[in-house]
Each structure stands twice: as structure tokens, then as C-alpha cells.
Amino acid sequence: MRLKTIREGEAVLFTLPALVPLLLFWLGPLGYIVYLSFTEWDFMSPNKLFVGLDNYVYLLTHADFYQALKVTLLFGLGTVIPIIVGGLALALLMNSKLPSTGLFRAMMFSPWVTPTVAVSIAWSWIFEPDVGLANLVLGWIGVSPVGWLQDPTWALVAVMIVTIWKSIGWSMVFYLVALRNLPADLMEAASIDGAGGWDKFRAITLPLISPTTLFLSIILTIQSLQAYDQINVMTQGGPAGSTRTLLYMYYQSAFESFNVGEASAIAVIIILICVLLSGLSFLFSRRLVHYS
Amino acid sequence: MNLTEASKMKPKRELGRNLGRERSRKAVPFGEKFWRMFRYVLLAVISLAMAFPFYWMVTSGLKTNDEIWRFPPTFWPEAINWSNYADAWNSAPFARYMFNSVFVAVAICVIQVVNASMMAYALTHMNFRLKSSFTGIVLVGYMIPSTAVYLPSYLVLNELHLLDSYAGLIVSNCVSVFAIFLLRQAFLQVSHELVEAGQLDGASHFRILWTVMAPLIRSSFAVMILITFIEQYNNYFWPMLITKDPDLRLVSAGLRSFFVEGGAYGLAWPQIMAASAFTIAPLLILFLFAQKTIMQSVNMSAGVNKN
After folding, report:
1. Closest listed residue to residue A266, CA positions, set A252, A280, A256, A279
2. Fewer Cβ neighbours under 10 Å: the N or C end of chain B?
3. Which residues of chain B neighbour A267 with C-beta distances below 8 Å?
4. Which of B20, B255, B284 minimises the CB distance to A121?
5. Are strands A39-40 and A49-50 parallel, antiparallel or unpaired?
6. A269: number of Cβ within 10 Å
7. Looking at per-residue confidence, does B20 or B63 come out higher?
8. A93 touches chain B (CB under 8 A)
């Protein structure tokens, strides 16, 4: 009995170096922010005023919140889908019986390792409305120049382009691994049975790589909810709130307006969205995803 | 996929490969040749387009202010102005910023190797009552977006009097759920018999972990360290929140402040592009040398999700 307690103690000791910071900077704050979302506070005053659900009511009755929710949704769909579909397309293009594609793979993956702030600055120059490269390219295909970061309809598109550019090669490498693990005999058998390229893709490839797709959707969605660097550098939420996501609104109300209660309520909503999506994807995975 | 499955699959795959080879020994039909050519060209074009922003950054940093504002832009600078790079480097303490980034990232890597391995080892090869709830805690951490709790974490750090310090930058980032999962995955592949054998020889868990297990999962360590280093070197949002002192800026925050103040939002674009270029350079060089390991992270993080 005592020996067992000692052993247990040793195991707990092993977990402490990670557990303490995890509780201090991750799970503790999680509980703390729920509490803060029921209060009104400005970082300075000695007392936090308990206001119940006021912050949530305020948010849910103001257009700013819905605007940010809309931007978050657009940004999420507009980045996650192209990164997944594009990554898969690139992987398919590269995969079958095409030798020495290492250099291409490295070039496409490289944006992922670089700091978002630095590349966002470079992209801001590309999106410069008068002399930028983006408008030059638009001119080549006969489209008149747009204001990009200064134009409320195009600013979000510009931020999405940078986000997609940064992660598409990363998702491609995931799919390359998944495609390489496809059982070759199954593909051969399908070919012998007379299945065409598209049939094989739909009936065999897609279901077999669905775990990768699910994994990428979850990770990329959580990442899109957390996008901050590129927005901060390129648009700071503007123009006219057109790139202000929930996360950016949270940051602004916490560290620019010092409205701790409201900011915390937004954060709780972001967390709830995450939990909801994780739950949904779990349900999805049981029905649609094929684990071999 | 675990190792036994992989070994079962290998012969099948080789069979497939042989079939492919037999076919290619026959003359490749023209259509297929053309299709292959087409794919190469397409891939080359896409790759160049993907890498183009880097090229653009470097060459824009070599242009004069006059040339950079010309339209249509020149694709190769008329005269090479390396002085822009020197100017940018000297007009803000970039050496200091880079030192900060590297120092903080390395310190975090070292701590994470220790605490993530101990946690992962305990979760896989030790028995204790709270094991499943600890796994649960780590799992929750994996799903919660860390940025959402920056506000309360900031308050915690303030209470600990760690704002505006290297210690704060390091301590607040010293645990990574991803690292724990990655190593847990690696430890699951190692037979528990090794631990039992070690115990029979009278070795402590601590010794078994570092002398028996750690060498076996070297490649997971390599991946974990590289990914953590890249992430922390590039880190911007959180370090910027918790430091006001310009001397403590990491390289991204330093670059961003140069962009806003020094560059006055676009008046000195050649210098700004030069600064962005030398900020990115160390990472691209690192990527050049550690490509395989970095891309391997994909393999492993996909595995993280399966359990």
C-alpha cells in the first residue's frame, strides 16, 4: 500500500513540470475568463463589478458583434476550404509517378516556416494600390485595379490570400503523406475492374484520405479563429471593420479600450465556437470518416 | 498507423511498385508523356509563384526609393543598393531583436523537451490514479485556442511580476500541448518491456526515461525542437502583449515597430523590404538544411490526432 502511494507520487512528480504551467497559463485562465466575462473592469480600478450577463446581452444586441462574427465566418470558410482543396489538388498533381519533385515541394512549403509578420509586410507592398504587383497582375488579365487593403470589400480577400499562401503547401504535404499510404493493390484492382480516374478518386482516394481531411479541417478552423498577426500588420481590423474578426475585436476591446468584461465575453464565445466545432467534427468523424 | 500495420503493408506496396515498373518498361504512350510534361510545367509555375513574394522582398530591398515607386515595376533592380540593407540593419537594434528571439526560443525548446517528455512518459509508461484525467486535461488544452485566454494569462503573469522580462517570455510559453502529444505518440510505440527490464536492473524512471527511452525517439525530439523553435522565433502576438520594453522585443515585434515608426507606414519601402528579408533569412536557411525533418512533422502531427 505504501509502496503504491510512493509510486503514484513519483508519477505525479513527473507530470508537474508540464502540469503547473499548463494550469497557470492555460486552464486556470480558462476558468478566470469565464468569471471575468460576468464583470465590468478596466484593469485599473481595485474592484471588479459583477454585472451578470450584461456583457453578453450588450454584445448580442450590437451590430459590431455580428459584423465581427460575419467576418470570422467568411475568413474561416475563405481560408479553410481553399487550403484543403488547393492542398489536395497540389498533392494529386505531384503524387503519381512524377519523379524529382522535391524542389517544388520545398518551394511550396517554405512560406509556412517564415514569420507571419515579415511576410505580411511584404504582401502589404504587393497589395499597394498604385504600384503594387497585385494590381499589375490584375491588369494582365484585364481587370481594373482595386484598392486592396484600403477597400472594405477587398481587404478581407487580401488577408485571406496571405493566409492561404502561408498554409497551402503545409496542407499539401499532409495529403502527400496520405496519398502515399494508399494501398496500391486496391488502386490496381479498381483499374483492372475498369474504373476511370475520377471514379477511383471518388470511391477510393477520397474516403481513404478522409481522416487527413478531418484533421486539417479542425486544425485550420482553430487556426483561422486565432488569426491575428496578418490582420494586425495589414489592416488592423479596418477599413470600416471589414477585417475585424472576433479575435481581433477581443484584442481591441481588451488592450485598446480596456473593457475587460466585454473582451472576456467575446473570448468565451470564441471558445464555445471551438468546443462546438470540435464536438461536431467528432460526430462527423464517426459517420463519414473512414479509419483503416 | 502503428509499426506492425506498416510492416504488413510493405509487401503490398512493393507489389504495386513492381507493377508500375513493368508498365513503364513498355513504351510510354505519347498522351501520357505529354500529360507528365504538362504537370511538370504547371508545378514549376505554381512553385515559382509561391516563392515569388520572397524574391520580390529581396529585390525590392535592393531598389532605390525612386525605382520602387515606379509603375509598372521593374522585375530586376536597375542598380543593386546593398546600402538599403545596411541602413535598415543600423536604424533599429535588429541584432538585439534576433538575439532575443533566438535566446527565448532556445530556452523554451530546452524546457519543453524536459517537461513534455516527463509528462508524456508518465502518461504512457507509469501507472497512477489520475492518469486519465491528466490525459483529459492535456486534450482540453489541445482544443482550446490559446489566444482566447491571453487576457487572463496576462493578468496571471502580472500577478507573478513577470511582465516585461525574459523570464516571463520563457515561462509563459514553456508548455506545449502539441509537444506532449507528439512525444506521447512516440512513447506509445516503445515497448513497455524496456521499462520493466530497466526497473529490474534497479534503474529509476528518471534514468529509464533519459538513457533508455530518449535515444529511441530521437527523431520525434528533432521534429519537436525544430517546430517549437520556428514557432517561438516567429511568435508575435503574445510576446508583444507582455513586453513594453523595446529591448525585450522579439524579431517580429521589432520588425513591425520598424515598419510603423521607422518606415512611417510606407515611406521607406526599400528599407522595410530589406528588413523583412533579413528577418526571414535565418528561417529559410534553417528550412534549407532541415527540410526533411520539418516536413516529417506533418507525418507525426497527423499521427497525434489518431489517438
Report:
1. A252
2. C
3. 148-149, 151
4. B255
5. antiparallel
6. 21
7. B63
8. yes
Q: Between B305 and A24, where is the model more confident? A: A24
Whole-angstrom Cα distance, residue B158 to residue A101? 50
Q: Residue B32 and residue A184: Cα distance in Å, rounded?
A: 20
Distance of CA A1 to the CA centre of its chain: 49
> What is the reported pLDDT for A260?
94
Q: What is the pLDDT of residues A268-280, one digit of tens each?
A: 999 999 888 888 8
- Annotate A15-48 with b (16+ C-beta within 10 A) or e (fewer): bebbbebbbbbbbebbebbeebbbbbbeeeeeee
What does the alpha-carbon distance between residue A85 and residue A239 come to, in Å, rounded to a whole number?
A: 29
Contact of A108 with A169, CB cutoff 8 Å: yes
| pLDDT tens profile B233-265 | 999 999 999 999 999 999 999 999 998 876 555
User: CA-CA distances (angstroms) from residue B236 to B32, B101, B179, B181, B250?
Assistant: 48, 10, 20, 24, 7
Q: Where are the alpha helices (DSSP H) in A202-292?
A: 206-208, 210-226, 229-234, 246-255, 260-287
Q: Which residue has the cell 502539441?
A: B178
Tell which wins on pLDDT, A58 or B303: A58
DSSP B65-126: HHHHT-SSPPSS-SS--THHHHHHHHHTTHHHHHHHHHHHHHHHHHHHHHHHHHHHHHHHH-
Q: Which residues contact B121 (CB under 8 A, 6 or more apart)?
A: A14, B183, B187, B205, B209, B213
A65-102 burial: b if 16+ Cβ within 10 Å, else e = beebbebbebbbebbbebbbebbbebbbbbbeeeeebe
Q: State how far the Cα of A271 lies from the Cα of A66, in Å rounded to an integer.
A: 17
Instruction: Decide: B209 and A92 in contact? Cβ < 8 Å.
Output: no
**Phi and psi, residue A134, nearest 5°:** -60, -45
CB atoms within 10 A of CB B133: 9
- The C-alpha atoms of residue B57 and residue A123 are separated, in whole angstroms, by 9
CB distance from A84 to chain B under 8 Å?
Answer: no
Q: Evaluate whether B173 touches B238 at the Cβ level (below 8 Å).
A: yes
Asked if the Cβ–Cβ distance from A97 to B20 is below 8 Å, we say yes
Tell me, rounded to whole angstroms, the distance of Cα B215 from its chain centroid.
22
DSSP summary character for residue A39: E
Interface test with B, best of A121, A229, A264, A273 (most B CBs within 10 A): A121
Residue B266 banded pLDDT, cuts 50, 70, 90: low
Nearest to B121 among A14, A29, A168 (CB): A14
Q: Is B148 helix (H, G, I), strand (E, B) or coil?
A: helix
Q: Which three cell numbers stand for residue B28?
A: 510510354
Kindly state the DSSP code that residue A98 receives in the 8-state scheme. Answer: -
Interface check A264 vs B, CB under 8 A: yes
Contact A229, A116 (CB under 8 A): yes
Residue A263 near residue B154, CB atoms below 8 Å = no
